[in-house]
Structure formats: C-alpha cells, structure tokens
Amino acid sequence: GNVGIASRTNQKYDGAESNPYHSDFEKTSFKNVVVASNLIHGVAKNAIFLRNLFGGVVERNVVYDTSIKCVDGGNSIVTARVKNTIIQYNEGYKNGNNTSTKDGAMLDADLYSVDTIWQYNYSHENAFGLFINCTNKNDNVTVRFNLSISDMGNRGIICLNYAFNKIDIYNNTIISGVGSGLGLEKGLVLFEASENANGQSNIFNNIFYCRSKNAKTSIRSSLKEVSFYCNAVFDSNGEYKDPSLNKLIPDIDSHPLIKESDPNFVNNDYSDLSGYDQAVKKFAPIRNKNYKAYAYPISNKFVDILGNSYSKTIGCYFLH
Fold it and tell me: Are 62 and 19 in contact (CB under 8 A)?
C-alpha cells in the first residue's frame, strides 16, 4: 500500500482545512491516540502518517523498507495538523528513496506539527537520515535524545527544510559512514538548513561522528538564526573542516566545539545495526567523562535514550 497507518479528517474551518491554530481544533481532533508496537514494512511511501491529532503518542514501532515505489519519495513517520504529539522509541531503517531530493527521512514534522516532540528514536540506513521538517512558520518542534547510525545523508541527516518559529535540536548522536552497503568513501550531508528554513534553531549538545570522507554541512549564507553551540564533531579522517559549519560559531570560547578523531564509544562494532535495544547500548555510551565539561545544561527532569537520569553531557546518553 501507499501508507501503512494513517489518520485524517475532512473537517474544514471557514472553508480551509483543519489546523491546530484554529479555536475549534481541540473539539474536532482525535484525542488520546496511541500508535504503538507495530511492524510496518514494504510500503510504497509512508509507514505512519498521522493528521488531526491533539496530543497522542507514536512509540515502539519498527518501520523499514519504506518509500520503495514513490517517485517523489516519502518520509517514514510523519505528522501534520497535530498538536502536542510525541514520537518516541521507534526504529526506522532503509527508507528507499534514492531518486528524489524531496523526502527520504525516518521522521518528518510536516505542516502544522505544533509543539511536537521527537525523542529516543533510532534511525539507520535511511536515504536522507533522522529528521526533516516541512512545518508552518509558527510551529515549535523539539528533536532530542535520538540516535542515527549509517544514514546516507542524501539531504541532511538532520535537515531544516521549511520555516518554523523555533526548533530545538539537542543531545542527539549522529554516526555517519558505517554499516553494510555504505562505504567510507561516500560523501554525505550531516546537517542541512535550506533557503526556506527561516526561524530560530538551537542546536547543542549533539555528537556528530563523521566516518565518511567528503562529508559536509549545507547551510545557506543568509541564515542568521542558527545557534550551533556545545556540540562535538569527531572525524576519523582527521580534523573536520567545513566553512559553513565553522561560521555558525560566533564565539568559540563561550560556544565550545570539540574537534577530535574518535568519540570513544563503548562498542565500535558496526557489523550489525539491527535492533533498538542492542544498538543504543552499543553506540549511545561513550567512555570519556571529560565531555561533560563542554555540555550546555538543560534540565534534571530528563532521562536519556536508555532511561538514565539526567547528567550534563553531550549526545543521547548521560554519562555518570
């Protein structure tokens, strides 16, 4: 089929389609929706596409072999016209869009994904990567504590694609250039902000471990509202050099950026990327507790991808 699981509505307000900013949205939307523990694969476009939700959660689903027959591609888990929805603890891999630059990510905050939270997800071997947005200029979105391994980065593994009010992207771990079928010579885009990505983005406490030669970031020169700070960029090929990334750091003393060759994960065996629990235990933890000094403090209410209590650090695992 074209989509695995979907929700939608024909509700219109004054002739226009439903949207969460209308005063009647809560009355006409679906509430308390839970999409959980599904195995979805072999779909032409999207595995899960949810519209018209107020609240709700999408969790512990495994989706793979998506976007296999759609000319313009498709993202695997998508929300649109929703508010306060949480997407968490999902695994998505092998999004098959290798022919289009439109869609090919595991996660997509699409139009009117208002106050959505995308957390604790595991993405690997997808055509684009972990996350892309196609939001409205008033939307606020949070992307945190996610793990990406061996995503192909045909667009950015994290890609800011359309306007938004604010996007917070923090404590994610991105490991590029490993796994079956993805050679270390392949160039890819770690982070992309397109011409349309207007809004305030705060990108901090993330780990970017680059094992691919010719990897890059792609950020339009006029984008002034990107705050990129307290991240760690590791490069197994030597110091990672990219002018479009370096220009995001206005003050290297107050916004430190680690540049080293190896993040020193607890396990460096990338031969098998399958399985959520197995992967996060292998690749989330790093050994060097000194990285805690570089991190920007957030809140002690959070837990990490493995459920550990808050500790100031970088990446999706809290060092203790």
Answer: no
Query: Quick one: pLDDT at residue 185?
Result: 44
Q: pLDDT exceeding 90 applies to what percent of the chain?
A: 39
Give dist(CA 97, CA 218) in Å, integer. 20
**Cα–Cα distances in angstroms (integers) from residue 196 to residues 97, 150, 223, in the given order:** 22, 27, 9
How is the chain split into domains, by residue range?
3-294
> What is the DSSP annotation of 153-186?
-SSEEEEE-S--SEEEEES-EEEES-STT--TT-
Instruction: Give the model confidence (pLDDT) of 270-316 as tens digits.
Output: 778 888 888 888 777 676 666 777 788 898 889 999 898 998 888 89
CA distance 25 to 191: 34
Which numeric CATH code is attached to 3-294?
Answer: 2.160.20
The dihedrals phi and psi of 130, each to the nearest 5 degrees, come to -75, -50
Secondary structure element (H or E) that encloses residue 118, with its range: strand 116-119
Which residue is listed with tokens 């995308």? 118
pLDDT of residue 272: 81
**What are the φ and ψ backbone dihedral angles of 173, each rounded to 5 degrees?**
-120, 120
- Token pair of 305 as six digits: 């991808």
Q: What is the DSSP letter of 203?
A: E
Strand partners, 189: 156, 216
Q: CA 273 to CA 291: how far, in whole Å? A: 25
How many angstroms separate the CA atoms of 257 and 253, rounded? 9
